Amino acid sequence: MRTALLASLAFVATAAALPAQLALQLTTGVDGGISVPASPLLVPPTGITVEAWITYNDSTIPLDGFFYWPTIVRQNLQNGQEVYNLRVGAANTSARRLEWIIRAGSSLQSLSYTFAAGEFAQFTHVAATFDGQNMRIFKNGVQVAVRTLTTLTELVNTGDVLRIGNGDAVAPGRETWNGKIDELRIWPVARTAGEILSTKDQTLGTLPGKLLNFTLDGFEIDLASGLIGSTFGTTSYAAGAPGLVGQYPIVNAIGQSSSTCSRSIDALLTTVPSIGNADFAIWAARGPRPTVSNLGILFGSTAAAPPGLPPVLGIQLVFDLNIVVYQVAVLPPTTLLGNARWPLPIPNDSAFPGVSLLFQWAFFDSVCGSQGITASDGVQFTLQ
Length: 384
Prior knowledge:
By secondary structure, the protein is mostly beta strands. The protein is 5% helix and 37% strand. A hairpin with an 8-residue loop joins strand 5 and strand 6. Mean pLDDT is 92; it is low at 1-19.
């Protein structure tokens, strides 16, 4: 991971000299795309959001009797083994059906949105989410399709690589995207419609919490977590989605989770901490399931813990107990997949820019807490 991070930093420095606002451009029938090596970051167990700006030319999909599945992103390229897949199910009729496919348990489940001819000819923002039970598709931040599964399940990690702009390799070229892909982001939680809408017109830098952020501005690196992809086949870069605003928030993860189990708890943000952001919230991912935790507490402070502070009830506090400015009990503490989200709208107040805050989650936890309590790491940010 350290090697990937150093490579990421070096690549970011190089990228500063590259033209901005580019997008990956591909053509169905011509094999090409980006391959990202296998990593646990690609398959979060606590839900997922996949989003991107896309164009799609439905008028040039071949009608030659073969089946075509132009793909935005697919995890695991092996035939029938995908973990998730966001694509157009053009089939052999040039059908206009945006499909969101996830692996739930031992089977694949799908949701689709039927679009009109030319609907994606110009850049359009699309997003797909899965929260363990509900599959959703959004267009420009508005939900256009939803399906509720009968049972709750995590995504099943079948390994293998992630492909951007292409699907499986059984028939090279037939699952290549037919248009442009820009600002591909994969989040480890199912974001809300408001959160998706709040950042769709923004380019982002890094945010803690295992976000994957492929800006596709002429390079194949994930700027948030340091994964490095590589192109294959025929690919090119062209003008990207217009009018996007760069946002590079000052946000850092501090400390570490106190969990004694393999699921360390991450505190994270899924929007920018900007003044007037009504959809701002503090998230915790990979927290205890409600069956083993009956209460969660979110702490907020303006000061970090003093150096050498000993653990308190088995957890390492990241904030100064003497300067707690926010404290709220959360009940139930988490969703059935172990996530917690607490809305914290930021007022449009000129006194707030430059204020630094940090938050940490604590949970009563009979399984993963050494003294019955477990906690996340901290997330620290500056309002802008």
